[in-house]
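User: Here's a chain of 118 residues. Predict its fold as tokens.
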Amino acid sequence: MFFTLVAAIFLYLGIDLYGYIVQQQKLTVATNELLEVIKAENGYDSANREQFNRLIQKTGIDPARVTLTATPKLVERGNTVEVEASMEYECIGLKPLGKTVKLPIRVKQDGLARTFFR
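Assistant: Prediction complete.
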């Protein structure tokens, strides 16, 4: 019986590890997409946040759990724009032992603005 409990906990931990990696990949893809928009528009504004929220909702992530910071609008061509998204992933593998572990997921992307202002 004890072996079954230990095996179940390791199985849950393996599933948690897989879930963490998948959530990180989803957040990375969404951040990359937002970075491309920000590079084209030379910065970030509230309309971009709405686009990002719709994108991560389609992937199954709750937008309220994601913190997003980015370079604001009107960056000159060739200057760096950055996007950083972070959230917490809750591991459930240790719940049978009365423990919950929250792991941070942080994704940071940067690139160069593309539009030239005169």
